[in-house]
Amino acid sequence: MIEDLRRRVAGPVLQAGDDGYEDEFAGFDLAVRQHPAVVVGATGAADVVAAVRGAVAAGLAVGVQATGHGITVPADGDALLITTRRMDGVRVDTDAHTAWIDAGVSWERVLQEAAPHGLAPLVGSAPAVGAVSYTLGGGLGELGRRWGFAADRVRRLDVVTADGVARRVTADDHPDLFWALRGGGGNVGVVTGAEVDLVQLAGVYGGGLFFAGEDAGPVLTALLAAGRDAPDEVTLSIALMTFPDVPAVPGPLRGRWCAHVRVCSSGEPGRCEDVIAPLRAAATPLLDTVRSMPVTDIGTIHNDPVTPLATNSRSRALHRLDEDAVATILRHAGPRTPFLVELRLMGGALARPPAVANAVGHRSAAATVYTTAHPHPDGPTASDTAAEQAFLDDLDAWSDGGALVNFLAGAHVSGADVRAAYDAETWTRLVAIKSAWDPGNVFRINHNVPPTPSRESP
User: Fold this and answer.
1) 388 has a pLDDT exceeding 90
2) CA distance readout (Å), 101 to 108, 133, 154, 399
3) C-alpha to C-alpha distance for 422 and 150, rounded to whole angstroms
4) In whole angstroms, how far apart are CA 433 and each of 133, 137, 175?
């Protein structure tokens, strides 16, 4: 198989022991160790077709990696891993307000290409992540309360299915695949490119309000009140964390446990100031970076890490919020908590059905809670993981136990976690589509939706 793939694929085809093997799939998340039987550095759709056909013939599972954020299932000895970073084309259509993005492109690149035209994609809080993989998982970003999930704004997907055929998928062409891929991830194929809507946006008003952790109680209470009345153009979230004592961290925050409120508005600055005024009144910020900025700087609002880390991410979708929820969060979050706690308020366009239905789960959630234990050179300890789980278990009174798929990352993610990310009707339909298009579960190196074994491929 290896030699046949090397004849058919323009990019590198590597196995253990080859020069560059491990470098080819080195990604952002260092917590999940991978040792695929074969790794294919795809340069385009034809390479993906050859890789899928070769994997199926050899009885191997197929995994896909762009930037390596959010790895859950390692590609090991029974898997062929396709890396897509060489598939880096971006084409902006200024008349249609769309962008075509190849499978390996990051949101940062799309931002840079669209911004000169006064346009922007529905980017995530960390623009370094892969745009296509983020979108397939739903895509909850800073602009979502105004324009919805990234998956809601997809016009077309090019995908290679388990039979090794490249297909063009839209609301009219293979609508079942189009529905499942937008929110259901890569369970039914390898997406080689996507056409997505852009919005008219040159800049945003946003940044961070950093408070001492001791003020987290009144700040959280003020945040919940502000979120209930905020217009759709304003997105709010908060992270409770201890900043490292390193020179790169601003002096007032260095080594301190803090409540970091993130603010992003795509509307008038004055309207945003009205929303966040009660937050500034709740306590005195240690640092205030809220300002007008070009949309290309939107990643500075969360200021997520950009260097590789061993992370362990867990989450819950909360269907209501109240003072008891705040008290529960504060019982677990403190200066010695070994993980970051993030609360993102949802609502607005995120809660409304898209123009073309998709498989995004927990659309009606009031908020999502996310935890991650980092930075640890070798990932979180067992006690860290247990502490995270205890925190999330205590939030069950406000949750059905589910989470948004893009916020499930790490080797701990179970099949039950993936199942709980969707309501019963959506899950049943995902299983049916998976069973029709990938009955052998070739695409299982992911947040897997297992097929019903007796179904046949179309």
Assistant:
1) no
2) 12, 11, 11, 35
3) 17
4) 19, 16, 11
Using alpha carbons, list the distances in angstroms from residue 177 to 112, 190, 194, 379, 425.
30, 11, 13, 36, 16
> Residue 418: what are its φ and ψ, rounded to 5°?
-65, -45
**Element containing residue 326 per DSSP (H, E):** helix 323-332
Of 312, 269, 295, the closest CA to residue 127 belongs to 295
Helix (H) or strand (E) holding 114: helix 107-114
Give the pair of three-digit tokens for residue 303.
């200021």
Q: What is the pLDDT of residues 400-426, one digit of tens each?
A: 889 999 998 877 789 999 999 999 999
C-alpha dihedral, 127 to 128 to 131 to 132, nearest 10°: -150
**H and E: helices and strands count for the chain:** 13, 19
- Closest by Cα among 144, 88, 137 to 120: 144
* Nearest partner of 444 among 141, 23, 73, 153, judged by Cα: 73
Model pLDDT for residues 284-320, shown as the tens digit of each residue: 999 999 999 999 999 999 998 888 877 778 899 999 9
Contact 49, 87 (CB under 8 A): no
Strand partners, 38: 80
Closest CA relative to residue 417, chosen from 440, 429, 399, 435:
399
DSSP letter at 324 equals: H
Token code pair at residue 76: 């090991």
Which residue type, as a one-letter code, is found at position 302?
H
pLDDT grade, residue 456 (50/70/90)?
Answer: very low
With H, G, I as helix, E, B as strand and everything else as coil, classify residue 47: helix
Please give the DSSP secondary-structure letter assigned to residue 341.
Answer: E
C-alpha Rg value of the chain to the nearest Å: 21
Name all contacts of 400-404 with Cβ < 8 Å and 24+ positions apart: 400/317, 400/319, 401/316, 402/316, 402/317, 402/361, 402/362, 403/314, 403/315, 403/316, 403/317, 403/362, 403/368, 404/137, 404/138, 404/140, 404/315, 404/317, 404/361, 404/362, 404/365, 404/368
Question: Facing residues of 314 across strands?
Answer: 371
Torsion of CA 177, 178, 184, 185, to 10 degrees: 90
Determine the longest span between alpha carbons in the chain, in angstroms.
67
What 3-state DSSP class applies to 395?
coil
Which residue type occupies 351?
A
Q: What is the pLDDT of residue 1?
A: 86
Residue with tokens 């919940």: 224
